[in-house]
Every structure is written in C-alpha cells, then in structure tokens.
Amino acid sequence: MSTSYEAAGVDIAAGERAVELMKARVARSRRPEVVDDASGFAGLFDASAFLKYRRPLLATSTDGVGTKVDLARRLGIYDTIGHDLVGMVIDDLAVCGAEPLFMTDYIACGKVVPERIADIVGGIAEACALAGAALVGGETAEHPGLLGEDEFDVAGAGTGVVEADELLGPDRVRPGDVVLAMASSGIHSNGYSLVRHILRTTDLTLESTPADLARTLGEELLTPTRIYARDCLELTRAGGVRAFAHITGGGLAANLARSLPETVDAVLRRGSWEVPPLFRVLQEAADVPQGEMDKTFNLGVGMAAIVAPEAADRALALLAERGVPAWVLGETTEGTGTATLV
C-alpha cells in the first residue's frame, strides 16, 4: 500500500493557497528598506539605513498571544489575533525607545485552512503597518496528530533600532517624575487562562451580554490589543520621557517596577481612573480577589510613561491629539525600586 505526505495529514497545496491569499495584505506593511528575496527563504532589510545613526543599537523581542487563541478558535474570528501578536512583540521594543523595523511570524496548526491562515497573517500585517514595522517573513507549520484540526498557535519576533545615547530605561528615572497611563483597549493578551477558568466555572459564556457591557462577552474578550509603538516614539521625540512600561503579564505594578532604578519607587493611584466594566464583570462573576486582579490583568492601563514633571502636560496633550486616552497615574519618590497601587 502506497502512502503520501497528504495521507499523513499535511496538505502542501493548502499551504501554498494560504500564501497566495495573504500576499496583498502583507504587502501593505512594507517599508522602503525591505529588499525582496526571490527565493522566499529569508526576509531582507537594507542595513545601510543605520548609517544615519551615530551608534545604533538593535533591539529584539519575541512573544505569543497565549491562550487568547482558544477564544478566537471557539468564536471563529481570526483577523484580530494578529493585532494581539504585534502588540505583544512590537510594543516591547517601544519601551526602550526603539523604532520598530520588521517582524516575522510563526503559526502552528493542526490543519492548514487557507482562509483562516490568511486572516491571521493579514491581521499581523495590518497591525505591523499601524506600528510602522514591515512583516518580512514567516512560517506556517501543519502538525497533524499533535494539534486538532481547529487548533493553532501564533508567535512572532520583531527587531527595532535605537540610538545608544537615546536608550530609555530605569537609569533615567528620578524622584519627582510623573507617571502617565495610556488606556488599554481591553484585556489585551494576558490573563486569558484565568478568563477561561472563569468561563468554565461560572454562568458566564462567550454569548453572554452582561448588564455593564454593550457587546457580548466574546466580542469584548477578542477586542484586539492597542498598539502604542508610534505613540511612544512621538512622545520620545517631544522630549522629557524617562522610561516606558508595557503592562502585560504580571499586571500594572510589577511591570512598572521593571522600569524603576533601585533607588526610586512609584506610587500609582487607583482613584486616577475608572477600571473598565469588563474587568468588574469577570471579577464579580468568580469572586476574584483584588490582589489576583492586580497581578493578572492590566485593569485598563496598557502602557505607562515616566516623564519629567515639566513634560507631563505636553505629553498628555500629544496623546490626546493622537486619540490615546491618557492621564496622570502617579509619581515617583525616593525608595527601593517598587511600584505600589494605593
């Protein structure tokens, strides 16, 4: 009896069709520095662009979307998960002040469904364009027998560049600086294991429309991650930025502390913003302690900026012009490198 790769569960033709479907959307993320590789085995970027720098530092980041992909699968919505991936990867680069240059992606799935793969990659490309990064390559791997036909996971890596003497970080932070919050679009891409546990153990379902929400819970939970890279770059160019903190796994205080030196604390004021209703719906449904909420979710703050006092008003005005809700979250004091919600 003869056998084949397709009989083993790998459909090469489907993979080729997925590539054709995504080409036009990927092209929209192109930057002038991208160089075509006729073989398609590598993504090429013209490094002569770095000649304008005195001492360019390359920054790199890699991440995934976590178990949020399970909700996308269950709801059959695949064009937003790419925004989540870009937000997780590219906004980490923005924290050090780096301009994002390019990104690659990796998708593992149990079965290649061309339209689904094209939606995922198309979303990644659209988000890259929003962030100013080029999507220069990627890989789709079919893993029959390891993943179910409807199962998939996504990951990516990004590269950026920053001038060495403009590198942002804890060493620039001083007591008396102002901490600004930039609103999240929702839960973003962290805490979904707890979300899925709440869905399993309470009456909430993806089709529920709790009283405080205008959409179904599923729609709220799949809201794509806000991408801050260009906003952060504009703040940096305006001057006065000491550091950024991307609020991801670990919550607000833990991520803010990563951007503090050992001699400075940050005091973050709960009363400075209203936590979006989605977080309250989840907390109340499962009686989640506040401490668990604090260390699991962003609670409505997706990015924080630590700025010099004289730059705070200008930074808030710039963010307002760019359509990013922002406010004074707290301030820094002398301390031991901790951030506290009070």
UniProtKB/TrEMBL annotation:
Residues 174-338 form the PurM-like C-terminal domain. Pathway: Purine metabolism; IMP biosynthesis via de novo pathway; 5-amino-1-(5-phospho-D-ribosyl)imidazole from N(2)-formyl-N(1)-(5-phospho-D-ribosyl)glycinamide: step 2/2. It is found in: Cytoplasm. GO terms for cellular component: cytosol. Gene3D superfamilies: PurM-like C-terminal domain (3.90.650.10), PurM-like, N-terminal domain (3.30.1330.10). GO terms for biological process: 'de novo' IMP biosynthetic process; adenine biosynthetic process. It catalyses: 2-formamido-N(1)-(5-O-phospho-beta-D-ribosyl)acetamidine + ATP = 5-amino-1-(5-phospho-beta-D-ribosyl)imidazole + ADP + phosphate + H(+). InterPro entries: PurM-like_C_dom, PurM-like_C_sf, PurM-like_N, PurM-like_N_sf, PurM_cligase. The keyword Nucleotide-binding applies. It holds the Pfam family AIRS. Its EC number is 6.3.3.1. Residues 57-162 form the PurM-like N-terminal domain. One of its GO terms (molecular function) is phosphoribosylformylglycinamidine cyclo-ligase activity. Keywords: ATP-binding, Cytoplasm, Ligase, Nucleotide-binding, Purine biosynthesis. HAMAP family: AIRS (MF_00741). Belongs to the AIR synthase family. This is Phosphoribosylformylglycinamidine cyclo-ligase.
